[in-house]
Amino acid sequence: MIADIIEDCGPQATPAGGPALDIFLTQLRSRRDEIETLCRLPDDIAHALKGLGLYRALVPRALGGDEIDPVAFLRLVERIAAVDGSAGWVSSFAGAVVYLAGLPPHRFEELYSRGPDVSFAAGLFPVQPVQRIGNQLLLNGRWKFASGCSGADWLGAGILIEGEGLSAKPRMIIFPREAAELVEDWRVFGLAGTGSYDILLKNVAVDADWSFVRGGGTTRVEPIYHFPVIPFSALNHAIVGVGIALGALDEARAAASGAARTAPFAQAAAALLASRALIYRQTARVWGQVRRGESVPTRELGLLRIAAKKAAEVAVAACRAALDITDPDDSATQKNVSRHLRDALVTGQHAFLSPAAYEQAGQVLVGQPAPPGFV
Predict the structure, then answer these.
(1) Is the peptide bond before 126 cis (omega within 30 degrees of 0)?
(2) pTM of this prediction?
(3) Which of 171, 218, 314, 369 has the fewest beta carbons under 10 Å from its own?
(4) Which residue, among 120, 128, 100, has the nearest Cα to 201 in the 3D structure?
C-alpha cells in the first residue's frame, strides 16, 4: 500500500489482530459487494472484528483488555477502512469505550464482567427527553444513525432527563441490544454497509446509573481514558476517510490508464500523506502529554481537530484523483474506486468533521476560549 511508503507514526504498540488481521482483510476484500448490497456487515464479519481484538483494544488490562495506545488504535481502523469503508466506519466506534468510561465504576466493570470483547453502537441524535421514575429512566423515542447496531451487544441513546432543564448537558444511556427495536431504513449513497439503522425504544425502563454526561469526565485511572474524548472521536472518524483514500490510491495505482495524467495523482497522494502524518504526529504528541499526567494545552487539542477535519477533506480529493487515473475500460476497478469516493464523501459529513471545526479551532489557535463542546 501507498501508506507503507512512510511510517512516521511514532512509538506505538503492535496493532491488535496480529497476523490474523491480514487474513481477515483478504476475506473482507472479497465481500465488499455483499456488504454494500446487504446494507450492513454480515454477522460473521461483525463477529470476526471481535476475534481481531478490535473491541478489547482500548479496554483496561485490569478488565481483560489490551489497552493499546491511541495511535495503534487509529492505525488498526485505518487498515480496515483501506479495504472497506463501511467496515472501517463500524470499527471506528470501538473507540467509544473512552466515552463509556464516564459510567459509574461499578457499571463500567459490569459492562465487561463477561469479558472484554463487547461491541457497542449508539444513536445519539435527536436527543430525546426521558422520564425519571424512582431510580429508573423510562425511554420512549427513536434515535438515528446507530452504525453497526445489528452486530452490537450494547446500544446507547442520547437523552435529556425531564425536569433538568434545557441547559442541562446531553447524556448517553446504554442498554442491552435486545431492549431495542432496530428500524432497518438504511439505504444510502455512501458507507452503505454500515447498517446505520434507527433505534426504537418503547417504554423501556433502565436504571438511571447506566447514564452519564457525554464527554463529562472519566471514572478510570488508565491514561487512555484521559485522552480528550471529543478530539479522539473526531480522529476515529477522520482516519476512516484516510484509510478509504489510501485504498483508493492503491487500487488506482495498480490499474492506472496508460494515458492518465499522473501529476494530480501525485499531488493528491502528497496531500493525503501529509494530512495523515499530522494526525499521527499530533496524536502521539498529545498521548505523550496524557501519559505523563500533564495538562494538555487547548491549542494542542485544536490542532487535533484541525488535523481530523483537513484529513477528511483531503481524503475526498485523493479518491477523486484515484478515479481520474483509473482505466475507463477497467470496470471492476472503476466500481471499487467509485465506492471509495462515495464512502469518503459521507465520512466527512460527521458532525465532528463539519466546516465549523475550522472556525472553532481558529478561535483556540488565536488564544480565544474554546467553544462549548469543542474539546
Answers:
(1) yes
(2) 0.94
(3) 369
(4) 128
> Beta strand 154-161 with 120-133: parallel, antiparallel or unpaired?
parallel
Nearest CA-CA partner of 243 in 25, 11, 12, 48: 25
**What is the tens place of the pLDDT at every residue in 42-93?**
999 999 999 999 999 999 999 999 999 999 999 999 999 999 999 999 999 9
